[in-house]
Write a structure and sequence with these properties.
CATH topology of the largest domain in chain A: Aspartate Aminotransferase, domain 2
Largest sheet of chain A: 7 strands, mixed
Number of strands of chain A: 12
Distance between the termini of chain A: 58 Å
Shape of chain A: globular
Oligomer: homodimer
Structural class of chain A: alpha/beta
Largest interface: A-B, 160 and 159 residues
Strand order of the largest sheet of chain A: 2-8-7-6-5-3-4
Number of helices of chain A: 14
């Protein structure tokens, strides 16, 4: 164990050195290698004879060397960024105590923590008598939300199948593609996921929703589910929940909110208005691994009323797992689509203890301020064009050539090339998207350590890359 | 960072102390507390103001204090046991480099590792041109297998839904309940999951399968999927794949194998015959967090022929995620039901490096020898009755009273009570199940550190508990 401790301490030192160097101005966000090149560099064969623990350290070093620094303040690519020491600590303990969440008996503390976390998240959403569960990601939470909706409207499907019913679900055209995956998986069919028009800000248009519901009724289909979004993936739009809730109530549909990205605005007194009406909906997706900075995966499905999760998700017939003992009411497994389930509770627990409600509020408020700063920067820069006025932490813009080049495909090509060059050089990791036919740069502010100077560096590097691409005639 | 390093090193020391004490003979496998009692003992409120990293250490200590020691050699409760230092090391690095598996660009090394791991697992199964993916658990892998089967037989369901088709799937009556969850989720209906009779050893009876398929055809239903099992949950039975494959081929059905528990016999030249015919099937579930000792969750879905995973699982329409760049052929996300996906690759990678193929072979062979020893022990003990001759690492037996008490419900009660007392006292964590109407004790041999002496201790404690329960007239 002495040697083991030495080796693990060495790993701790390597990891901290890696994270610390995220802050050095000269550190690249990625040491980019094309896949076929990296494949050549790494020896990826698995051995017949094992090696010592100490011999694993060089593998760890090379893993660190070629990993993308998602903790860097120049990583804006996805809906998460930053690094979490309490999260790392939690994952060490979680893997050492390695258990599964299906019954209280084998995961006593983690089960109590999960129940308490769900209670707190529900309280933020406004579900006073709710239930919930940690699941395997935001996509999975959306799926479970849709399954709850199906169970509400068509409970017999659990035993009998969908039968002749042609279920129809509704989301905005800006909603996450996980809804399409869910419609596929659940045998509903992607064509029966109706994409409702959204407005210029990316918000679902309630009148368009109602028209779509009526259309599907006129086709003798069975509308059952509306999937609203709080923080869309590209624009960061929040669908208008109060208006949508009136419609879902009128037609008896399940209303789910995908809050994977936007939910933590609920920590902020200043910005929680974006989620006004959240208490009116039936279920809610919350990803703590996005804006709350917990290591992936840390997702919850929250449900307003108790009882439906177990009815919708359980499979029955499991003598060997679920015993009718004194702790049975605490068991979480029968609400889950999983059997063995990793403890994702401790990492959220330790992060929440570390930051506190106020810490999360400050982080959210600070990132909104930075978003405001970024928007001003773009609007005051001749080379940059804002694509939509952001309401959240997604800043969508594009680089505009200095010469009055108006051919849209050339501008698209230029922006694609800028992004590529920034990644190749390791200066910035930022994503592109297509919006209203245009290639745009999507700047995501998710890293709680972000400062104005990081944004200035980002824009400087991006504009320089743009000028260079222009100069060499890309 | 200095303080951070000190705190994380303290956590390493605590964890190693915790794991080391698993080996002390006086260490209890659980410090059992009923849920309501433990809830009182722990302060589970979340704060407004955050705390320091150092202040998280007492939380970690209390987490360790009340966690079940799944790493103990007296933990026989589930299909995993033991602790994995390479796995803990990997989870530290994984959480520090925190990324998602959907594209090569953001997870370069982990993506290449995953592809290599899948290739190696496929090679063990006998899928020479296969594909595959890490998924969120064995249940999820079975679900994806069933979805691939649906896509093979009814590809139009992806866009159109199930329509009027009444799909029917077949598993043995001993199969895992995740198949029922999948039938529910996929809109097929649990009643359309036909449970085929199994023989005395728990193996699916091929003639019964064919009769069930013909029955469903005669009812104008659409058979599409057979879910065989390699290592059933209670008895550890291996369904006869060659005979089943003849039938699925004849009727054009997808043949999936749930090898969540039994797959690693493929490492053993001596025992791989249990999975004879694995190369004949269409898809395969492999849980590396069970017999391979990797921390939860580490599961793979393996598919014999390339192309179907993406067709079956993708949702389409994701400009902002999947770019058509030079690394696109390496991206794994479009084969997945998830969007954000934790790296489960590094922990399997480091464990496999650490043990090597031979190490895993030795572990499997050793556990089979211990199973043989346990069976002999039971057969030579007047107080114990073997329920079925095991073919794998599940030893199902029960305690039999010394007085010639024949009332079956009394024996059931006695065995329930024995198990409860062993957990309350913290001496043993072992599971019960019901088989052929009887309450049985299911001893699972999954811990690679297990020795004969541990089994002797187990039987001694169990028999003593039985005698005590008898004495006090339970």
């Amino acid at each position: 164990m002495k040697d083991t401790q030495t080796t693990l301490n060495k790993a701790v030192a390597l990891i901290l050195q890696y994270l610390e160097s995220n802050w050095h101005p000269e550190t690249k966000v990625v040491n980019y290698q094309a896949a076929d090149v990296l494949q050549e560099k790494l020896d990826l064969s698995l051995p017949d004879e094992g090696v010592t623990l100490e011999e694993l350290i060089p593998i760890v070093e090379s893993y660190l060397q070629y990993s993308v620094r998602t903790g860097s303040t120049q990583f804006f690519n996805l809906l998460f960024s930053g690094s979490s020491i309490p999260g790392i600590l939690a994952e060490m303990v979680t893997s050492a105590t390695n258990t599964t969440m299906h019954t209280y008996d084998v995961a006593p503390v983690a089960t109590l923590m999960e129940r308490e976390l769900i209670k707190n998240l529900n309280s933020l959403v406004g579900f006073q008598q709710g239930e919930g569960l940690m699941v395997t990601g935001g996509s999975n939470a959306n799926l479970v939300g849709m399954l709850c909706g199906r169970h509400k409207v068509l409970p017999e499907a659990k035993l009998k199948g969908l039968g002749h019913h042609r279920l129809v679900a509704f989301v905005s055209e800006q909603a996450h593609y996980s809804y399409a995956k869910a419609a596929n998986l659940m045998g509903i069919g992607i064509e029966n996921l109706v994409k409702v028009n959204s407005d210029r800000e990316g918000k679902m248009i309630p009148e368009a929703l109602e028209a779509a519901i009526q259309q599907s009724l006129s086709e003798r289909k069975t509308p059952f589910f509306v999937g609203a979004t709080a923080g869309t993936t590209v624009l960061g739009a929040f669908d208008p929940l109060p208006e949508i809730a009136v419609i879902t109530k009128k037609y008896g549909l399940w209303l789910h909110v995908d809050g994977a990205w936007g939910a933590p605005v609920l920590f902020s007194k200043k910005h929680q208005h974006l989620l006004a009406g959240s208490e009116l909906v039936n279920s809610f997706t919350w990803d703590a691994h996005k804006l709350m900075g917990v290591p992936l995966i840390c997702s919850a499905i929250l449900v307003k009323n108790q009882g439906i999760l177990q009815k919708a998700c359980s499979g029955g017939g499991t003598d060997y797992l679920f015993h009718d003992d004194e702790n049975a009411p605490y068991n979480l497994g029968q609400m889950s689509l999983q059997c063995g389930r990793k403890v994702d509770t401790l990492k959220l627990w330790l992060c929440w203890q570390y930051y506190g409600n106020k810490g999360y509020e400050q982080q959210v408020d600070k990132l909104f301020d930075l978003a405001h700063y970024a928007v001003n920067y773009i609007q005051n820069c001749d080379n940059l064009e804002l694509i939509a006025e952001p309401k959240f932490l997604n800043i969508c813009f594009r680089y505009i050539p200095q010469e009055n080049q108006l051919d849209s495909t050339v501008i698209d090509q230029l922006n694609l090339e800028i992004r590529k060059q920034l990644i190749y050089s390791g200066e910035i990791f930022v994503n592109q998207a297509r919006y209203q036919g245009k290639i745009i740069i999507r700047l995501i502010l998710a890293n709680s350590e972000l400062q104005k100077a990081d944004l200035e560096k980002f824009f400087d590097n991006l504009i320089n890359a743009g000028k260079m691409c222009e100069a060499i005639g890309v």
